[in-house]
Amino acid sequence: MGCRLSALGCREPQLASIASTPDSRHPRAKTMSALLQYEQPEPVAQKALIQLDEISKTYDSGENAVQALRGVDVAIEKGEFVAIIGPSGSGKSTLMHILGCLDTPTTGKYWLDGEDVAEMSARALARVRNQKIGFVFQTFNLLPRASILKNVELPLLYAGVGREERRDAAFKALQRVGLEKRAKHRPNELSGGQRQRVAIARALVNNPSLILADEPTGNLDQKTGSDIINIFEELAAHDETIVLVTHDPAIAARTQRRITLVDGEIVNE
Ligand code: ADP
Ligand code: MG
Question: How far is the CA of 241 from the centre of ligand 1 (A)?
Fold first, then answer.
């Protein structure tokens, strides 16, 4: 596991953390920090967990191009619980896809957890998704024939984590959503709200920097949806960062912060 991660380039963040803590009292500190800066010609300044600068996205569908995002600037700090709202066609899904590293912007900058991800290759983006982002979908997207424990293990399987470590982490993630007693059950033995809690456990299992939820309460009744928001609230209180898209004003009102999109632009945040 360690080798795999270093092969994927996790040395840079370590270097960045060394570079950010030079001891200024040490006589060689200045030289050291100058050297470290030389090693990193473009040091990532202290940024928010998520920082979008002037993001635009244009879809080229044949002759008529659609400008889905027009100069979006957003900074989101670790531990924030944010809703993206706005009318249909305003660019919410496009923004979610960019935040989730499923798509790249046409122009603009995106830093996620100190990494410049706006111009990464598809392969690099897949690595970022696997390591840094947990996804929760409206339709849960669980494997019906696998136990919920196995469902939660899945992102770790993709990440190459060994069996025992996978099982431990998945069990702990199920504990965080209160479903550890159901670990051996299959999704069809659970209610909709419980299935969405499994999906949240799966999103949490590899300790992501960001949890992205696309209409996570869209298939749930009001009470169950509200219970799901309680879980997100609690996770945010424990410093998880959550961004969700919702059509439901009652759900949006439960978050700490709302970002409203109209015609691809942020209005009166
Ligand atoms: P929302 O999620 O707020 O409904 P979207 O981000 O899905 O909005 O869409 C924003 C605009 O971009 C819309 O005009 C939509 O038709 C257009 N759009 C979205 N995806 C594509 C695509 N793959 N190709 C062309 N146009 C697209
Ligand atoms: Mg949409």
Answer: 25
Q: Is the CB of 246 under 6 A from ligand 1?
A: no
Contact 141, 199 (CB under 8 A): yes
61 CA to middle of ligand 1, Å? 11
Q: Phi and psi of 81, rounded to 5°?
A: -120, 110
Closest residue by Cα to atom 15, ligand 1, is 89
In tens, the pLDDT along 144-202 reads 999 999 999 999 999 999 999 999 999 999 999 999 999 999 999 999 999 999 999 99
Q: What gap in Å lies between CA 216 and CA 211, rounded to an integer?
A: 11
Nearest CA to ligand 1 atom 1: 89
Which tens digits make up the pLDDT trace of 192-233?
999 999 999 999 999 999 999 999 999 999 999 999 999 999
Q: Which of 151, 246, 268, 254 is nearest to 204 (CA)?
A: 151
Category of 52 on φ-ψ map: left (φ > 0), alpha (ψ -120 to 50) or beta = beta
Whose structure tokens read 């920090």?
33
pTM higher than 0.90: no
Residue 216 Cα to ligand 1 midpoint, Å, equals 19
